[in-house]
Prior knowledge:
44% of the residues lie in helices and 15% in strands. By secondary structure, it is of the alpha/beta class.
Amino acid sequence: MLMLKRSLKSSALGLAKHRSMPTSFNRMLLGYMGIDFDPPKGPHYPGGAKAALVVSLDFDHLTKSLQAGSTRWFPKSVDELLAKNRIGTKDMLGVSEKYSVPMTWAICGRTAEEDSESYMSILHSKTAQEIGVHTYSHADVASCSEEELRDEIKKCLSVLDLPEQPRTFIFPWNRSGQFRLLSKMGFITYRDQKRLVGAPRENSGLLNIPPTYYVDTKSYGALSLIRKYLDLCISWNSVFHLWMHPWSVVFPSDDSGRFVRETLDPLFSYAAQKREQGILAICTMGDLAASWRKQANGPLETPEPVV
């Protein structure tokens, strides 16, 4: 069944890639796959590239993730999940450094404390990584008061101990809200829940960079399909936003990094070739948001953070 679904999606993406296809047809076609289709009229990507690749990873609260884990393969203890978090972080940093692919890490403050080894490896990566805020305790922003969210962010920032104000905020469980406060605290961008082939969208003072593809257990052996998503975004001057958790690249009974080697390594190699050709910008969420706003609206003025 999985192979059949992949085949159907692959065929749909192949059709949607062609610029001769009307927007209405592509919107309907991708809509069946749960993806919005809204390509920009003109690209505003770093270096004048035609499209952009963004990779974001959620460094989630270990205990809450364990409680929410419902799939058969998900770890059964915090120690096991912690081990997979470390392996996945190491593997992703390795492929990031190999192809100079900067990534956005949405860090939950509590997990930075529990897995400080992985957090420090992100900070000291040979390829500059972006640190985004994911609250301290993976709080549900949609049900938080303004005061509660402010305290969560301040506690997270204290743990992260960064020299500069983070620009990216990732909502736990992708449950959004409190945009006004986030903007006041110096954030400029976030990731929405709804998938999109298109460009960043302004929303309540922040720039939304929606996801395009989520890496999970169904992604094993899906290199060809994921690459077609990237090709589709390149064809339509869009952002290919690849989203995952560090442990979602470590598959059951396989801590050897096979998924990263066989799927993400060749994908990043392909993306790096497109970058060398001047076709694809590979950047963090914060860098893309700043570049997009600067080219679309003039120089970006980041508000002073309110602490």
